[in-house]
Amino acid sequence: MGIDFYYTPGSAPCRSVLLTANALGIELNLILVDLRKKEHLRPEFIKINPKHTVPTLVDNGLILWESRAIITYLVQEYGKDDSLYPKNPKKRALVDQILYFDLEKLHPAFADCYYPTIFSGSTSPAQKHLDKAREIFKFLDALLERHTYSAGDHLTVADLALVATVSTYEAMNFDFRDYPNVVNWLDVIKTTAPGYEEVNGKNVLVFKEMVEKLSRKLETSV
């Protein structure tokens, strides 16, 4: 039957799943959900996911709608080994730690900074939200001083989730000059994550183009 994956390409959480599936060599049945057309509110989608969010994955009756749950499930169910999500409790805890950091800190800070500028036509992020994001990146930069990758010495799903978020900051021209370790890590992931450009890089541009189109529309409506 295959694995159905409901997604929108500009979404960082969706891209983290695409990166993980690509790294595992899994072919997903890609089902595009156009949020601007409110396709996520269609009754047939709400029946699958009452939370009506993307990403949503359906695998032989199992329905998952949180990207970090999806990517860890895919590795455990389909991975040929545990390199992307280690079975060792201590190593896994380091990966989970980064996943929670992305979920609770980095991704929400992006939403606070940039969603108002994207959807309401504000000229720039509020200073308090930028300051908060900078503090979070300051912490991330210190963390990345210890290792080449975010949770150790090799690529894991922590990096795949994190890079989907960080590259979206990059698309919004966030200033990384004060975070050299983040910049170095980002360069490493872009060159070592399987199919990075095809899966994430091109879809980040989709997000950027959407933002630019919305900005032009808001400018002409003022």
Automatic annotation (TrEMBL):
InterPro entries associated with the record: Glutathione-S-Trfase_C-like, Glutathione-S-Trfase_C_sf, Glutathione_S-Trfase, Glutathione_S-Trfase_N, GST_C, Thioredoxin-like_sf
Its GO biological process annotations read: glutathione metabolic process
Coiled-coil annotation reads none
GST N-terminal domain: residues covered: 1-82
Q: Name one GO molecular function term.
A: glutathione transferase activity
User: What highest taxon heads this organism's lineage?
Assistant: Eukaryota
Task: Cite the GST C-terminal domain residue spans from the record.
Answer: 88-214
Q: Subunit structure, per the record?
A: Homodimer.
For this entry, the protein name equals: Uncharacterized protein
